[in-house]
Write a structure and sequence with these properties.
By secondary structure, this protein is an all-beta fold. The chain has one domain (12-69). 0% of the residues lie in helices and 52% in strands. The protein is built from no helices and five strands. It has strands spanning 12-21, 27-35, 40-43, 54-60, 63-69. The N and C termini lie far apart (25 Å).
């Protein structure tokens, strides 16, 4: 499910965990990252992200949330 991203090709900015339905209709948990330049990349898990991630808290449209960041 993860899209390939060459290590060091771009700097990751922020990631979050979400659920996506695969082509068979089965829900899958993915780690979605917004990288430098605005692109979004999905990974099978947070350990699949080619960067060191640190947990942070913030606020989104639904209230307080947590996310991962490389900075």
């Amino acid at each position: 499910m993860a899209l390939a991203l060459e290590a060091g090709a771009e700097t990751l900015e922020s990631c979050w965990v979400t659920s996506e339905t695969d082509r068979y209709g089965i829900p899958q948990t993915v780690t979605r990252c917004r990288i430098s330049g605005g692109s979004i990349v999905d990974y099978a898990s947070d350990s699949a992200v080619p960067s060191q991630l640190y947990a942070q808290t913030g606020t989104d449209l639904t209230g307080q949330c947590w996310y991962y960041t490389s900075a």
